[in-house]
Amino acid sequence: MSLRVTAAIAACKAVRGIARILKKGGTAKPGEVALKICPDLLSVVSRGVESVVVTGTNGKTSSCRMLEEAFAHAGKPCVTNRSGANLMSGIVTELVMDCSLTGRCRKRYAVLECDEGWTRHVLPAMRPKAFLVTNLFRDQVDRYGDVSNTLAAIAAGVAASPETTLVLNADDPVSAVLGRGVPNPVVWYGLEQACGTPGATPGEAELHNCMVCGAALEYDYVTYAHLGAYRCPQCGHARPNPDVAVTSLLSLGTDGSRCTLRAEDGEKELYVNLPALYNISNAAGCVAAAQAMGLGAHYGRAAAETFRCGFGRMEKFDVGAGARMILIKNAAGANQVLDYLARLTEPFRVVFVTNNRPADGTDISWLADADFARLAALPTLRGVVCSGICAETVRARLLGSGLAPDAVALQADYSALAAAVAQSDVPVFLLPSYTGMMEFRPYLAKLCGSAQFWE
C-alpha cells in the first residue's frame, strides 16, 4: 500500500472528524481532499467490496434506502452514502470512513447512489456487481442539456464495466437503450398494463421520439411521464418483457400502496411502505437489484414493506397537523407529486421552497412543463406558500395556472415559515428543490427532533 493512499485516507478521516465536531455534514469535502492526494483512491478502497450502484433522474435515494434495508434483512451490513452526496467525492468519503488506513473496507457490501454524470468515472473505478438505473428524464438542462447527453455519460460507464449486471427499467425508452447490444447481463423490471392507462400517450412536455433512431414512439399504455409499453415502428426499439413485474395495483393509499409483483419467487402481493406509483416502480427496481446481487427477491420484498424513506423523500415531520417533505426537481417528478396530491381526500396546504443554485439546476424552465393547473383545480387545497430564491417566479407560474392571488403567499424567512407549518390546522406538503430542502429542513428538524440529513 503506497504512502499516498495512506495519507489520503488519513486526511479524509481527519476532515470528516472535524466536520462532525463542528456539527457539519462532512459528506463530500473529506472525499474531495482525499482525491486531491490520491486521484485513484476509489478503485483502491472499493477493492473486494460487492457493490450495487444506483443512478437515474428520479428515485435514486429512495431506491438506495430500500436496498440498504434489503441487505439489513439479509444480515449483510453495507456501506452507503445515506446523505445523498452522490458525486465521486461523496462515494469516496463513505467508503474511506469504513476502511482501515491500509485501504481495506470492513464491510463486504455497499449500496451507493451515484450522480448520472459521474457514472462514467465511478463504474470503471468500482466495477460494481450490479448497476441499477431508475429512469432518465429531462433534468438540470443547464448541466446536462438534452437527456441524450445524460444517456451517453451513463453508457460510457457501462462500456467500461462489462461484467456488471445491469438492472434496467423496461418501461423507460431512454434508459432501456443501455441494455441494447452490451455484453453485460441485464435484469429488467417494470409495471404491466394494469398499472397504466391503455391508449394514452406521454404529455406534450415528455419524450416522444425513439432514442435509437429518432422516429415517433407508439404506446400501448403509459404509466407516468414517458414510461410505459413503448415501441418504435422504424427501428424496433421496444419495451422488453420484465423479469420483475408489477402485475396489478390493489390500492394506492396516502401512506403506502399494495400491488402484486412477479419475481423469481413467483407472483405475490406486496405492500410498499411509501405512497405514489413511482415508489411502486422503485420497489420493483429494488427487488430486481436484490436478485442481481444474489440476495434473493424475498429480501427485496421485505425491504419494500419495512423501509423508511430517505430525508426529503416523502419524509414525515411531527409538527402541527403533520407535514411531509417531497423533493421535486423536474417536471416528471412534479407531475407525479401532483398526481399523489390529487388523490388526497382531506384538506391540505402546499409549500414550495425553490432555488436555482447549481445543485438544483440554474435553469428552472421545467416549471413551465409541470401541470400546476391540476393543483389549482383541487378542492382540497387550502393555500400555497412560496419561499426560496425563486419564490416570486413560482408564484407567477401558479397564478398563471389558475390559482387566485390571495391563495398564494410569499414567505422569505425560513424560521417564520417553519413556525407557520407547525401552526397549520391541516397537513402541509413541502415541495422543495434540492438546496431548498437542505436549507429549510433543519428548521423543521429542530422543531420535532428529526435526525440530521446524513444520519
List the keywords.
455 residues; alpha/beta; nine-stranded mixed β-sheet; six-stranded mixed β-sheet; 18 strands; 21% strand
Q: Indicate the structural class.
A: alpha/beta
Quantity of strands, as a count: 18
Number of helices: 15
Residue windows where pLDDT falls under 50 for at least 5 positions: none
- What is the terminal-to-terminal distance? 31 Å
Biggest sheet overview: 9 strands, mixed
Q: How are the strands ordered across the major sheet?
A: 2-3-1-4-5-6-10-11-12
- What is the alpha-carbon Rg in Å? 21 Å
Percent of residues in beta strands? 15-25%
Overall average pLDDT: 92
| Helical amount | 25-40%
Give an account of the 3D structure.
With 455 residues, the chain is an alpha/beta fold. Helix content is 35%, strand content 21%. It has helices spanning 3-21, 29-37, 41-45, 60-73, 88-97, 119-126, 141-144, 147-159, 277-292, 297-306, 331-342, 373-376, 391-400, 414-423, 434-448, and strands at residues 50-55, 78-80, 109-113, 130-133, 165-169, 186-191, 197-198, 218-224, 227-231, 244-252, 257-263, 266-272, 313-317, 323-326, 348-353, 381-387, 408-410, 428-432. The strands form three sheets. Strands 2-3-1-4-5-6-10-11-12 form a nine-stranded mixed beta sheet, with helices on both faces. Strands 13-14-18-15-16-17 form a six-stranded mixed beta sheet, with helices on both faces. A three-stranded antiparallel beta sheet has the order 7-8-9, with no helix packed on it. The protein is globular, with a radius of gyration of 21 Å. The relative contact order is 0.11.
